[in-house]
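Researcher: We're teaching a course module on how sequence relates to structure. For the next exercise, students receive a sequence and then see the predicted structure as tokens, so they can try to spot secondary structure elements on their own. Here is the exercise chain.
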Amino acid sequence: MSEHMTFDAPRLAVPDRALSSARMKVGRAAWAARYYKSFSREAVLAIAEAVAKAGYDRAGEFADLAVSETGYGVVEHKALKNRLCTHELLDYYRDMDLVTPRIDAARKIIELPKPAGVVFALAPATNPVATVYYKAMLAVLSRNAIVISPHPAAKKVSAQAAQHLAAAAEAAGAPSGLIQCVEEPSIPLVQDIMSSDRINVIIATGGTAMVRAAYSSGNPALGVGPGNAVAYVDPSARVDAAAKCLVESKSFDNSVLCTNESVVVTLESNRGNMERALRSAGAHVCNEADTDRLREYLFGGDGFTLEAIGKSAQWIAERAGIRVSPSTKVLVPVVATPGQDDLLFREKLCPVLTLTAAVDFEQAVTFAKHTTRRGAGHSAAFHGEDSTRLVEFSQDMPVYRVVVNAPCSQGAAGFETHLPPTFTIGTGFAGRSSIGENVGPQHLVHWTRIAYAKEAPADLAGVDLSRVSSDRPSTPTQVQAPPPQTGGTGDVTRDELRRLILEELRSLKGEV
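Model: And here is the predicted structure for the students to work with:
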């Protein structure tokens, strides 16, 4: 570089305020994580109880705000999802001890829990508050700090929910900065924070592009992929019960959960019964003309029509030019041949459930496998009493959750089954993800294992583990003041400005 070019180079790049604020939140979270990792199990559970109560108390209010801000879903259903991520989620994991060291005297192994540190969590617009509740609870239970980046379409309600939980956590003894939310998210900001060396793990819930970006950030990531769940209804099923499950699942929160059924396949011999049962359960079964109109409305442009996401069946029918009963919960387009690559066999985050019929069970499974590859690793549903076919279906499907005789939306997420309750569905190897389970707090803790020689004597009873976690709960008075932060405005403090200047000077000297 010439001397002239050196003098013309900027001496100080004024930082983007939102990015500067987000970086300082990460620094604040790193501070909180260092203190929180030594809290006792008693203290952790006390903080989790406070967070659960705070979330439950305002679940309905935040549900209303979420629908108002995003236009997605049903207030009553969102309120239910929010509540499920409070006391019920805590109760599921209450007995999972991620704090106390474990001693296996027979195998001469001591295990010490090591929290990740700072969790960076992405939250989608479709489930903004429930995801904030859920990921914040996971962080609290695993003794991690969390910085949440909401979808821009839901940034206000997400930030309010996170701030409400943070206040409850701090009142219960948590260090300041344990739960934080980015107020002004953007793609450049998210990409910058994801690659920060202060982030220890990313939980990515959202679109495929963002999940792929999380995996390529250079930091460990727990990512999930899109769903495209297929439900198979066997002739051995109670068809009325199966239809009721399908309609309840597909209409729940206007089908914004990625676990909702996208396609239902039955056998040709059972198709008439299936159509009748779906009508009785509240679905509008489309004729050929209505099916064509619905396909054109949903996929006639460049990809899926985004305005249809999370809207009601009546709203979509009106836009598509289809006359339906005011009580219609779900629209059911009918595609006669399951083997063709119809656009209606793709994921639809709205109450539209495609029906098709196979000539036999083998064709049904082949079709289901082909269709589910667009949501590989995610979920599927089976309705019927034939256990042999259930096992064959589950073995052949490229998914890690098969819900039996239950709504897939709630079942795969663990709220209508005994699967772990979650709003982050691991899609495993099939979905190019690092995890195939429903994500829980145990995935945010690793363990250091102290292993003694097999044949040598070991006095494990005399090992002092008091430094790992205190028997006494930490209190706010025991915690030092956190580093200064900018607040919601994103203004740069003097200390931050001084640090930026020093970094600029070092870079000019070639030290960085």
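Model: If you want an answer key for the exercise: DSSP finds 17 helices and 15 strands in the chain. The chain has two domains: 19-224+440-453, 229-412.
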